[in-house]
Write a structure and sequence with these properties.
This protein has 12 helices and 15 strands. It is an alpha/beta fold and 448 residues long. It has an 8-stranded parallel sheet with strand order 1-2-3-4-7-8-12-15. It has a 3-stranded mixed sheet with strand order 11-13-14. A two-stranded antiparallel sheet has the order 5-6.
Length: 448
Amino acid sequence: MTQLDGLPAELYSAIIRHLPADSFQQDVLALTRAIPRSPVPTRPLFERIHLKHAQQIVQLYSRLRNTHDERNWVKDFGIVTWTVDADVLVNLLGILPRISSFLLFVGPNFAPEHLEEIFNKPREDLRFLSLRFRPYVKKATYYQFLKDPPEPLLSNANHFAQPLVFFRLDLNIHPVALRIYQLIDALASSYSISSSVPIYQQHPVLYMEGLLIRFHDLQHLILDGCSVARDQSQGTEWNNIGKICATATIKRAKAREKELKTWLQHNAATAITPVGMPQPAARRIRPGRRGLATATISLREEPTASEPDIIHVPVGIVIPKVRVVPSPPVLLSLCTSASFITNVQHQTIREEFERGWHEGLAQLAAVKSRLYGSWKNGIRMMRITADASGSGFDGLETIEGDNAFYSEQDSNANLATPALCLAGSGISGKHVENCGHNIAWNVWNDTI
């Protein structure tokens, strides 16, 4: 009979694949210590790492900071503790470039700047992102990032002012599945209407729209514990949400088109002109056509002092007209929490959501039809590629044929309504088949 310490490396790998996930690392580590001279693969120790204690972050950083291969092995990484040294965590994540699945508990010691620093550099491999926020604390804390909070919230249990923090989510990431849990008081300041009032108090659906616009590959959006609609039981609000899910790509294309136009104008303005040539008259950039259909709500940020709204274009320089064609929506599921809603209300909400989705698809088809006419008239058309990062023409490709406007694959008939699940976190609710909750549980091996 073959001894355990005499097996080839391939058999050890096969054995390791059958170990339970909750004790995987401990079992592999015990195996390497029991038979230290045998070729037990150590790479699986680093492929999935979920840390439950703050000290483990320090230990892992000390272990990996002077290595190369091992830090690239880390694919599935999670922090499942509320109390961490956020600066050490930022340093650790800075040396883990190949993470594809990331689970992060954002506790009271975590500042918005820490989140921005983690995603400062593009994480091209990241496909699954789970952010679990804990806006309330059990004891009073006046951490340094509580900058000019608005009217403080009061915890009935603890009777002290609770922190209200804004986190930016316009980050250098493009996940396929995004899960945000218990995000009540911490939201993206870049999407807020007022700098002093949290967005969920005014138009909670706007931050969901901002996420759909920002993350072009997003297929599953999970917003448990979030106020997606002001009144969760109103079918009209869910009609609007369904429409937003279908038309987010229109706003994304318009935003990219505006960025490209500004870039082209800036290049023209900085073109070299002969010495002594008089400067041309200033031309003010107009934000676009105005008319009866002008939207009353916009996600466009107010211009800052560092952003000039007057650009000098040299005489004789022609700025080419380029339009960006919106891509079909890719969202497969939208999940949130809607408590105390009857079965009849559930049915009404789903019907209104589906109706809004199809109305949005009709708007998308109308926009593409108009752009198709412009393309036939010689206007250059481009579309956003899978890699939408960069400036100028980066992340854009020229449309050569009419399949970008009327392809069979992207037709409205083939764009199924995303699964809408209102059961919230946990497995006890009435979850919709193939909803994002089920996807997330399989990815992160939890039932949050």
